[in-house]
Specification:
Elements: H1 2-16, H2 30-39, E1 45-47, H3 52-61, E2 73-75, H4 88-97, E3 106-109, H5 112-121, E4 124-128, H6 135-141, E5 154-156, H7 159-170
Parallel strand pairs: 1-2, 3-4, 4-5
Length: about 170
Amino acid sequence: NEKAKHIAHGAFNRAYRNHYGEVQPFEGGELELLIEMRSLNVKLGILTNRDREFFEHEFAVVEDGAWLGLFDTTVCGCDTASRKPSPVPVLKALANLGMKPGADCWYVGDSTTDVVAAKRAGITSIFFNGTLWEHEWINKIFPGTPAHPYQPDAIVDTFAQFKWLMEECLS
């Protein structure tokens, strides 16, 4: 129910305005990885269900603004008519990058909605398990059943694992 989702996001935004501000990288080393990816001519984008009002402030304060200028596109929840798990935000990001969906487009996300959006858009889904859930639990939340068919193409627990995966695929 899209109308109910819009109402819920509005309520979330009203509450979030009182609490947002500080943002920290997951584990350290992300900036170096992003710079390395840029040096390899990898196009980078950020997709978030967060509204641009919050995203732009938070993005600007990560590592004192060091991430600004590293991304080719950003798509926020308010930039499209529907939010993830809809594929629409993913497809908008790809359009912004001048790319078509395909296996060579990766979406690294840390939620079930990220995996579903990537798979619905027809691109590769990498699940970043930053919470370090046991893989048995991950198999439960992505069962691959007819009712819940979407599964990530790969799971990484750390950015070091992601870097290895990226280097293996690029070589």
